[in-house]
Amino acid sequence: QVQLQESGPGLVKPSQTLSLTCTVSGGSIATGFHYWKWIRQSPAKGLEWMGAISTSGSTWYSPSLKSRTSISRDTSKNQFTLHLYSVTSEDTAVYFCAQGTLWGTSYYYRGQGTQVTVSS
């Protein structure tokens, strides 16, 4: 069974860059026909699809976040990483990494999530 675990800072200051890493076990991020994605949830916005990376390394981003988001991967560590630049308080949310289809917030497997708060 595929397991995912998010890691990263719980507190980030406004204007800084948030970087979260997802470590995957029980499956390879470089093989198969599924996608690895980031989703976040906040009381104000609900569930939000942020972006995804394919097993070949291609990336897609939410239009509303595209200008300040990137997703990278390290296949040797079986990890993929979200970078969110110039964060504001509106980026405060629980962040999840997941395996699933390209678009949307549905998933086959998902990490337990990590709370990120943007505050000075």
* Annotation field: number of helices: 0
Taking the alpha carbons of the first and last residues, their distance comes to: 39 Å
Number of strands: 11
Name the overall outline. globular
Mean pLDDT: 96
C-alpha Rg, in Å? 13 Å
Helix content: under 10%
The description of the largest β-sheet is:
7 strands, mixed
Low-confidence stretches: none
Portion in beta strands: over 45%
H and E order: EEEEEEEEEEE
Category by helix and strand content:
mainly beta
Question: How would you summarize what this structure contains?
Answer:
With 120 residues, the protein is mainly beta. It has no helices and eleven strands. The protein has strands spanning 3-7, 11-12, 18-25, 35-42, 46-54, 59-61, 69-74, 79-84, 93-100, 109-110, 114-118.
Report on the structure:
By secondary structure, the chain is mainly β. It has no helices and eleven strands. The strands form two sheets. Strands 2, 4, 5, 6, 9, 10 and 11 form a seven-stranded mixed sheet that branches. A four-stranded antiparallel sheet has the order 1-3-8-7, with no helix packed on it. Strand 5 and strand 6 (59-61) form a beta hairpin. It is globular. The mean pLDDT is 96.
